[in-house]
Amino acid sequence: MKLTTASVLALLAILKPHPASSVVIQSRANVKPITLNIVNADLAPDGFKRSTVVVNGTYPAPLITATKGDTLQVTVNNQLSDPTMRRSTTIDYDGIFFQTENAFNEGTPFVTTCPIGPNASYTYTVPLGQQAGTFWYHSQLSVQYVDGLRGPLIVYDPADPQKHLYDIDDANTIWQVGDWWHNTTIPLLAGYVATGIVPVSDTGTFNGIGRFNGGPEVPFFVQNVEAGKRYRFRIINTSARNVFTISVDSHNLTIIEADGVSTQPMTINELEILAGQRYSVVLTADQKVDNYWINAPYVGGTPSRNLNQNATLSRAILRYAGAPEVDPTAPMSSGPDTPNALVEANLRPLVAELPPPPDVNLTLNLVVTDGKAQWNVNNVSYVAPTTPTLVKILDGANSSSDFNITENTFVLPKNKVIQIDFPPNDDDEAHPFHLHGNNFWVIKSNSSDAINEVNPIRRDVVAVGAAGTTVRFVTDNPGPWFFHCHIFWHMQAGLATVMASGLDDIRNDVKPDNDWAQLCAAYAALPSDEQ
Ligand SMILES: [Cu+2]
User: Fold this and answer.
1) Interface predicted TM-score of the whole assembly (ipTM), two decimals
2) What is the whole-number distance in angstroms between the Cα of residue 432 and the centre of ligand 1?
3) Ligand 1 mean position to 492 CA, how many Å?
């Protein structure tokens, strides 16, 4: 059953106890219905046709826009039929922090919900609260978003404190980079399990367009600009593995946002973006009218394992109005000759916050089991339970021992400051760790040896790698929040935990609706090829 606007309003009234009159007026204006039909479609983003799992037939998925304070009412109609990819689905709204009472709508399978089976529908109620910035949405089930189910979610702030820094910020100023495979995910995952080798992508796509060695010359994405104008480009790495390095020939980029948090403007000419991360950059079109390369080379695994891969072909064109409709004449480079690259540790929030000292200290060691598709956090490889964490909590689970060992669930006190240390590791690629329900201060970035307890950036996806990383967050939004590597191949191989805080509050505040309550039984009743 779909939620009606009236029932959403009723739900909002329950969620946010305000004087009734103001709730009705505000909510009516703010509820935004969205329909996502999840379908299989044959698409060829890089000229190679394959079956996909996509929203409304497109890759990337359609842009969702909202205004700060809106509530999205996202109806997902699952119409999947191709058995070479998962047929059930869930949607995660990456970087949106669901409040405790609404935790059941945040889409993490077997943590807060169960997947939606084929030919079924579910409506997620997604209040955006006071968040604004650059977000995205994707399937959170297994590695299904590799098959195409990923798209942008932009929340505009009419009172954006950085508005004076740019002239243009609209549907045509979003840059989505992502890794792309020619095979579908059930065979890809089987190959990973058999070999322990994470699949190496065939292609990198820029706004859904890419090229591979020996493939057709698919026209590059063209970003049109007008001389003299200042553009806010919202960059999202929708990869399941690859790290992209973004630059624009002859132009600087001024970072003003990281993962939905406004930053002090910081001018660079090259930035590395990990899977799941987002940045807003301002580019001033201050060069002569011409075509310029937007370089977006990527890394992710050993290129020799996939001879289709050619990271130099991952790019787009910045075209000034009046320039000829041709490729830039400059050679395809991987970036500026004199890089002035983003150093994450140097980012500062626009509004500085002093992180309180930690009450609880955790250390998370990330270790792969040699030669296997198995990743461990403190010697435990996460395995999704059949009964979601949230259901167990509502049924009375109270301590870590009430969950399977393989759920790797940390029960934390509420309203406390949690510090998590990731010791340095020697893995080939940094792990982009992503927290649901909250963001964290980056007390120590992998990009530097410096400790910053004064004015660190706050974000929700951070590199965990060779130099070690420390993050700190407050458990002021109780919930069972997934904390996992955004290399979804690693996540699927166990590189995940659940940070569960305020279990009594969860029991008091979470009143799931009947549609949600029926998801798990319906999913459990499905034959395995429909799950
Ligand atoms: Cu990882």
Assistant:
1) 0.81
2) 6
3) 10
Instruction: Tell me the CA–centroid distance for residue 236 and ligand 1, in Å.
Output: 18
Q: How far is the CA of 485 from the centre of ligand 1 (A)?
A: 5
| Ligand 1 center to 519 CA (angstroms) | 29
State the distance from the centre of ligand 1 to the C-alpha of 399, rounded, in angstroms: 27
Q: What average pLDDT does range 370-391 have in this prediction? A: 97
Task: Tell me the pLDDT tens digit for each residue of 22-61.
Answer: 333 344 459 999 999 999 999 999 999 999 999 999 999 9
pLDDT digit string (tens) for 72-116?
Answer: 999 999 999 999 999 999 999 999 999 999 999 999 999 999 999
CA of 429 to the centre of ligand 1 (A): 7
Number of DSSP helices (H) and strands (E) in the chain, helices first: 7, 32
> Which listed CATH number (2.60.40.420, 3.90.330.10, 3.60.21.10, 3.40.800.20) goes with 360-515?
2.60.40.420
Ligand 1 centroid–CA 382 distance in Å is 13
Going by C-alpha positions, the residue among 488, 446, 513, 457 that lies closest to residue 140 is 488
Residue 111 · residue 435 · CB < 8 Å = no
Q: Give the contacts of 477 (CB within 8 A, at least 6 positions apart).
A: 97, 99, 100, 437, 438
Superfamily of domain 5-160: Cupredoxins -  blue copper proteins (2.60.40.420)
Beta sheet of 64-67, edge-to-edge order: 64-67, 150-156, 133-139, 91-94
- Residue 339 Cα, ligand 1 centroid: separation in angstroms? 27
- pLDDT at residue 393 is higher than 80: yes
- Å from CA of 496 to ligand 1 middle: 9
Q: What is the mean pLDDT of residues 378-401?
A: 97
pLDDT band with cut points at 50, 70 and 90 for residue 139: very high
> Looking at domain 174-346, which of 1.25.40.10, 1.20.272.10, 1.10.1670.40, 2.60.40.420 is its CATH number?
2.60.40.420
